[in-house]
Write a structure and sequence with these properties.
Layout: H1 4-29, E1 34-40, H2 41-47, E2 58-63, E3 67-73, E4 78-84, H3 87-91, H4 94-123, H5 133-147, H6 149-159, H7 162-167, E5 176-183, H8 185-206, H9 226-230
Antiparallel strand pairs: 1-2, 1-5, 2-3, 3-4
Helix pairs in contact: 1-4, 1-8, 4-5, 4-6, 5-8
Length: 231
């Protein structure tokens, strides 16, 4: 049976693993990885709009790993449209996009493996090193490597004009220009999962600290004086 300190630390590590899985699943299933504003350049050119009138031609865009959407204003009112997987992949760099999804799925899988090992170590003392600290370091490093798929997505956004491709997907009449785009909360959830695996490794390392055991107090021996011996 592991000590109380080890049970506490591995229980905390288990909670962190669960948190990592939740963060990754939510990040994968939501579509707020990138948000931005788009300008309908065609509409601006047609009416020769000046600066005060540009707001009438500025819409918004958002997308994730599996779907996205945009609202464009080209002088005909608001027009909303959605883009779904796999049409989204055809617009993007398909290989890089699939790599991001694969990496994140690997991260989810090994986070679950790490969770099972944390629960095992909280209940039993492993006889094999791979089931103990070394195994937990290994599984968390693999999950951490998978979570770094968010960096691949960041590279696609910054170096492959990802937002511009999504904005002009199936646009035959209008040309849309991206005014600005930013990483939204779905992306930062993926970054948060990276931090949780660093935290798990730190907690597992703390579990190896040997806490001092309280020593039982020895009963005090009665002192016998010369006066006691006379009686």
């Amino acid at each position: 049976m592991p000590s109380l300190w080890k049970r506490i630390t591995f229980s905390v590590a288990s909670v962190l693993c669960i948190l990592s899985v939740v963060l990754l699943v939510v990040a994968l299933s939501t579509e707020r990885w990138v948000t931005g504003r788009i300008l309908c350049k065609t509409g601006v050119d047609i009416v020769n709009a000046s600066d005060p009138e540009l707001d009438q031609f500025i819409g918004d865009i958002y997308y994730g790993l599996f779907q996205g959407g945009k609202t464009k204003k080209c002088g005909l009112g608001r027009r909303r449209s959605k883009i779904y997987f796999p049409k989204l992949v055809r617009t993007l760099n398909g290989g890089l996009h699939m790599m991001v999804i694969l990496f994140l799925l690997v991260a989810v899988g090994f986070a679950l493996v790490s969770l099972s090992f944390c629960i095992y170590n909280a209940r039993k003392v492993p006889y094999q090193s791979i089931k103990g600290h070394k195994g937990l370091y290994l599984w968390n490093c693999i999950a951490l490597f998978g979570s770094l798929g968010v960096l691949c997505f960041l590279a696609a956004v910054r170096h492959h004009s990802l937002t511009d491709r999504v904005a002009n997907y199936r646009e035959n009449l209008f040309v849309l220009v991206v005014l600005d785009d930013s990483l939204d909360w779905s992306f930062w959830l993926g970054v948060g999962s990276v931090a949780t695996h660093f935290a798990v490794c730190g907690v597992v390392a703390m579990s190896r600290i040997k806490m001092p055991k309280p020593e039982p107090k020895k009963p005090e021996e009665p002192t016998i004086t010369a006066l006691d011996l006379l009686y």
